[in-house]
Each structure stands twice: as structure tokens, then as C-alpha cells.
Amino acid sequence: MTFAVVAEGLRKRYGDTWAVEGFDLAVPEGTVCGLLGPNGAGKTTVVRMLTTLLRPDGGCAAVAGHDVVRQAAQVRSRMGLVGQNAAVDEILSARQNLVMFGRLSHLGLARARSRAEELIERFDLAETGGKPVKQFSGGMRRRLDLAVSMILSPPVLFLDEPTAGLDPRGRNEVWEAVRALVATGCTALLTTQYLEEADQLADRISIMDTGKVIAEGTPGELKSALGGDRVEVVLHDAADLPAAAGLVERATGTEPSLDPDTRRVGAPVREKAAALAELARLLEAAGLAVEDIGVRRPTLDEVFLHLTGDARDPHKEVAA
Length: 320
Known about the structure:
Layout: E1 3-14, E2 17-28, E3 32-36, H1 43-50, E4 58-63, E5 66-67, H2 72-77, E6 79-82, H3 94-104, H4 109-122, H5 138-149, E7 156-160, H6 168-183, E8 187-191, H7 195-201, E9 204-209, E10 212-217, H8 219-225, E11 230-235, H9 241-252, E12 257-259, E13 264-268, H10 272-286, E14 290-296, H11 300-308, H12 314-317
Parallel strand pairs: 3-8, 3-9, 6-7, 7-8
Antiparallel strand pairs: 1-2, 1-4, 4-5, 9-10, 11-13, 11-14, 12-13
GO molecular function: ATP binding; ATP hydrolysis activity
Keywords: Antibiotic resistance, ATP-binding, Cell membrane, Membrane, Nucleotide-binding, Translocase, Transport
Main location: membrane
């Protein structure tokens, strides 16, 4: 397997504080890696070191086969970076922006124009016509940002919260654009404040805390490590929770957990179909009023909070 991004023992210190200490990462070519972590975990510092904006204080890293310290110029020529804020000129049109960035990237005028047309088609920007960027929707702006980052067809793309502030439609537009890029062989390292986004886009996820990776795997692997499938029942009356808990334990063979605030009782389950059918039968026979019953897997939110020990809202804290 060939890796597009590799970091070994990466370290960075600010004064007496180690922001990153012993960070390891290996991202296979043609995949999306989601990098998650609470505020202060070191994600932004890692991205800055990998994109040559910061010099590491220890360890080593390579992007597209080039050392980020000794071969910084080669790294910059082989990567694209989409930051949290749009880097395009709001007065110009999409086409004019792309031609301008092509020229700034040392393409000849004819090549810059042809490349602009290729990217306008790839990122579905033709409908913008000659409108200035200031009239674009949020999703269009971010698609243009992605297009600009691909002017030189870099094999590695760093996405730092690419959908921050977008509505669901705008996020979906960006997701589709990222999937299309990866389908062409591009490799992406994604930081995001939306755990659903990492779940949707990432082939593998690395979760950081205190400057190092504390867990990694596919979204499915991380969820399974938290306990696999659970059967859950939401009751109409919280007073029925003890009785329902006994029935859940009988159907699943495992000790249930109760949440009086949500009138919910649940337990881990292996044979989910059989356990769910048996539990439904037991609840009906007992005459307990049920509002909802089903089987679900742990969410990536729960995995994140469990691993980082952070009781804060993950949607607000995951991406700094």
C-alpha cells in the first residue's frame, strides 16, 4: 500500500506547552482521512505542519513522497489547501477567479483558460455564468474554493472545515464534489466540526486528544469498538421503566441501562432480529405502552465523547 500522507512522532511546542506530541498518521492514496478531536487537541497545528506553514519541533512527515521540512517547495506543488474561509475574489466571476489563480500558479494564459473551463464543468459551476462570487450561494462558493485548490491537479488535498457555516444543501454539494475528486485518485485529509460529515466522507478516521492520535479505524470499526448494536425501547410512561428493563434483559441476555429523562431503556444485543422480535412480544404481553422500539448502532458522536472523555456538545467542539 502506498501512502500519500505520513507522519511519525510529529511534535510541536509553543513555549512550555506541547501542542502536538508524538503524532502518527498514514493516509493511503485515493482515500479520505477524517481528523477529529476536541478543542486544543492539536488538529490545526498538525495540518499547518503537514502543509509546510509550521516547522515541526520533532518527528518527521511526508506529503506525496516529499519531506515537509527538507522538500517544502515540492510539497506545496503537490498539495491543495481549502481553508475555513473563502480565498477567492468576490468581485470576479468563477471563470475569472480560476484564470487568475491559474496565472498565479505560473500557467500560460491559454492553459489557465482551458483549465478554468475543465474545473467549471467538473464542479458544476457553469450555471453561475458571469455572476460575481458575492452573488453565489454558500455551496457554490465552497465548490469554487475546491476548484481553485485543484488548479494544478494536486494529488493531495487538505480540507480544513470545508462546510463550516453551510446549510444542509450546501454541505451536500461540497460532499459530492469531494467524492468526485477522490474518485479520480485524489487523497484528502479532512478536519470537520460535523461528525456526520466524517461519517459520510471518511474511509478512515483518526481521533486526536492531547496532541496525539488516541484511536483510528473505519467509522464502522470505531462504532463497533464502543459496543456494537443496541436494542432500545422508548416508553409512554416512565413508571414502566423497571418492568421494561426486566423484559429487555430477558430478551437480550444482557444488563440494560435506563434513562428516565427520555423514558428509554436499552441493552447490547448480538442476534438483533431475534431479540427485537422477542422483546416486542414480551412488551405486548405485559401490556406496556411503547412509543418506539428498534435496534441502532452507536453514533460517531458517542464514539467521540467516549474516547475523549468530553461531555461538551461534539458539534461545537470537535474541530478546533
